[in-house]
Amino acid sequence: MKKRGVTLLLAIFISSLALALSLGIFTIIFGELGISGTSKESLEAFYAADSGIECALFWDIKQQAFSTSTSNNISCAGNSFSVGGSLLSIFDLNLSSNSCAHVRLQKTGSETIITSLGENIACGLIGSRTVQRGLEVKY
Q1: 59, 71, 102, 110: which has the fewest C-beta neighbours closer than 10 Å?
Q2: What is the reported pTM?
Q3: What is the mean pLDDT of each run of 10 residues along the chain (139 residues)?
Q4: Closest CA to 87 of 116, 122, 112
């Protein structure tokens, strides 16, 4: 008669152990999903920054659009901007509803510096999970 509760106690112990193991695995999987989502957003921001650099390089090197004496119109990814006419040109390249690049081109004597900051959200929006990546080119 003294052994009747042992089976119930053993069942509760095994159920508790299985529940604890399941919660641990769920926590690990949930964390990994968060990391993979952040990686995707980081890549979007990086590619946006790269697009901004490529746009500025093309218009500066191939077309000489960033002249310090005259203002010119350029077009990248369906966006048009007026640039040049001074040592500093700044424009925002809205690539899609998911990414944006803030581009800054500065001419200092014999050196040109292009800085592009890419974001994983559209230009002008503020998000709680905004990721920003930047690239800079000097030549």
Answers
A1: 110
A2: 0.73
A3: 74 94 93 83 92 93 85 88 89 87 92 94 81 94
A4: 112
